[in-house]
C-alpha cells in the first residue's frame, strides 16, 4: 500500500517530487484498476501543487462528494454525467493543503446497501464492503494513499476491515458535510482511509485544522480500555473473535489495562432505533429521487424507502430521545475508560451479493463518537478491530489504535 506519511517524508527529504508521486499513483491505477473496479472517474489533466502539507498526495473522493472538475454520479444512472459547479468543502480543503483530487471512487448507489461492481483486492469473489467500496479498495490495492468516504451506518469502518486498511470515522461534523449527498443528516459523517493509523491521523489533523489529533505515535499512558462485544447486536464470526483477542493482547503489551464491559441499557435501546432515524431521514433526503426515479433505484434501496413511508414522526422523535439518553450514558462511561475496543465487522468479507452487515458499527455512528479501525494480521483474509473514544476526543482514539498497531507489530 501507499503510505501518505512515507510519501511526504520522501518529498521533504528531496528524493521524490510531488509530480512524481502523483505519477506513481497514476501508474498504479493503470496497472491494478482493471481487476479492482474502484475508480468511477479518473482526472485527466490536473495541476500538481509543489507546496503544501499534502502536496504529492493523490486522493480518491467517494462519488457522492461534489467535485467541480469531475462528475459526481452518486453510483446511479439518475446522475449519469452530472457535473457540480463547485467542490464540496472537504475537497476544497484538501486542495488548499496541496492534495490532488485524482479520482472519484465507486460508491454503492446513493451510499446505500446495494452492492457495487468493485471487487475486494484480497479476493475478487468477495465484497469490498460498502458503501465506500471504491475508497477502501483503492487504498488496499495500493492505487491511492488517501481516500474519502462517508458513513451512515458502517460505510467506512466495515469496508476498511474487509479490505485490510486503516480508517477513521471522526466525531460527528468534525469534517464539513457541505457538498456531500445526504442520506441521513443526523448520521452522515465523512471518513478517511489510509495504509495505517499514522496516515489517517496525519490526514485528519490537517483536514480538520487540529494539530493535536496527530499524536505522532505517542500512546496514552496506561490507557483504560473497555472490551465491548455488543452482544445485543448478535454474534461475530470466529475470525472476528480471534482478531479481537489478538488486539487485546497487543494492547496489553503496550501497557493498556483491558477490562470486559457490558454496555448499560440506554445504548442497546438506541442501537435498535438507528434504522428508524436513518430511514425516516433518507426518505426525505432522497425525496426527489424517490418521486421522480423510483424505477431507477436499486432493489435494496428502493425497498428500504418503500418501507420508510410507514414510519411516523412520533417514532422518529422517540428514536431521537433514546439516542440522546444513550449519548449521556456513554459520556458517563468514558469517565471510567479512555477508549473502547470492539469488532469492526462481523468477520471476513462475504460474497459479492452483499456489502456485509454493519451491525457492529451502527450504534457508534448514532452516538457521533470517533471510531478507528485497524487491520489485525493472523487470518487468511483481512479482519479489523474498532477503537472508539469520547465525542471530540479523536486524538485519543487514534493514539489507542496506534498503541494496538505497535503491539501487533511487536508481537
From TrEMBL:
Transmembrane segments: none
Coiled coil: none
Disordered, as annotated region: 114-134
A Pfam family assignment: Amidase
Domain Amidase: 46-397
Annotated family: Belongs to the amidase family.
Protein name in UniProt: Glutamyl-tRNA(Gln) amidotransferase subunit A
Amino acid at each position: 500500500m501507499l503510505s501518505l506519511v512515507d510519501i511526504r517524508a520522501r518529498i521533504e527529504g528531496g528524493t521524490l517530487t510531488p509530480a512524481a508521486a502523483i505519477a506513481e499513483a497514476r501508474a498504479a491505477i493503470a496497472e491494478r484498476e482493471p481487476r479492482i473496479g474502484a475508480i468511477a472517474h479518473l482526472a485527466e489533466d490536473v495541476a500538481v501543487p509543489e507546496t503544501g502539507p499534502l502536496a504529492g498526495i493523490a486522493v480518491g473522493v467517494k462519488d457522492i462528494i461534489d467535485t467541480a472538475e469531475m462528475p459526481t454520479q452518486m453510483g446511479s444512472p439518475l446522475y449519469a454525467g452530472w457535473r457540480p459547479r463547485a467542490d464540496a468543502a472537504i475537497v476544497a480543503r484538501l486542495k488548499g493543503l496541496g492534495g490532488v483530487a485524482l479520482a472519484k471512487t465507486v460508491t454503492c448507489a446513493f451510499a446505500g446497501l446495494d452492492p457495487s461492481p468493485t471487487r475486494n483486492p484480497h479476493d475478487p469473489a468477495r465484497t469490498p464492503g460498502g458503501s465506500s467500496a471504491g475508497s477502501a479498495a483503492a487504498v488496499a490495492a495500493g492505487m491511492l494513499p488517501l481516500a474519502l468516504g462517508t458513513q451512515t451506518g458502517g460505510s467506512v469502518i466495515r469496508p476498511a476491515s474487509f479490505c485490510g486498511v486503516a480508517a477513521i470515522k471522526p466525531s460527528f461534523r468534525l469534517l464539513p458535510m457541505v457538498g456531500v449527498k445526504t442520506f441521513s443528516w443526523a448520521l452522515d459523517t465523512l471518513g478517511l482511509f489510509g495504509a495505517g493509523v499514522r496516515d489517517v491521523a496525519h490526514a485528519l489533523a490537517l483536514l480538520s485544522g487540529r494539530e493535536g489529533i496527530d499524536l505522532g505515535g505517542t500512546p496514552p499512558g496506561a490507557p483504560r480500555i473497555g472490551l465491548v462485544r455488543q452482544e445485543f447486536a448478535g454474534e461475530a464470526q470466529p475470525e472476528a473473535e480471534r482478531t479481537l483477542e489478538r488486539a487485546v493482547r497487543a494492547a496489553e503489551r503496550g501497557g493498556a489495562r483491558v477490562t470486559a464491559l457490558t454496555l448499560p441499557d440506554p445504548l442497546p435501546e438506541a442501537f435498535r432505533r438507528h434504522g428508524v432515524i436513518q430511514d425516516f431521514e433518507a426518505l426525505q433526503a432522497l425525496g426527489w429521487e424517490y418521486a421522480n426515479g423510483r424505477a431507477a433505484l436499486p432493489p435494496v434501496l428502493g425497498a428500504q424507502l418503500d418501507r420508510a413511508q410507514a414510519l411516523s414522526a412520533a417514532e422518529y422523535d422517540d428514536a431521537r430521545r433514546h439516542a440522546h439518553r444513550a449519548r449521556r450514558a456513554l459520556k458517563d462511561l468514558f469517565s471510567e475508560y479512555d477508549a473502547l475496543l470492539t469488532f469492526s465487522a462481523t468477520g471476513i468479507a462475504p460474497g459479492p451479493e452483499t456489502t456485509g452487515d454493519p451491525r457492529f458499527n451502527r450504534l457508534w455512528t448514532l452516538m457521533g463518537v470517533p471510531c478507528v479501525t485497524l487491520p489485525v494480521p493472523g487470518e487468511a483474509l483481512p479482519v479489523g478491530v474498532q477503537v472508539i473514544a469520547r465525542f471530540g476526543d479523536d486524538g485519543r482514539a487514534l493514539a489507542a489504535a496506534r498503541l494496538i498497531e505497535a503491539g501487533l507489530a511487536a508481537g
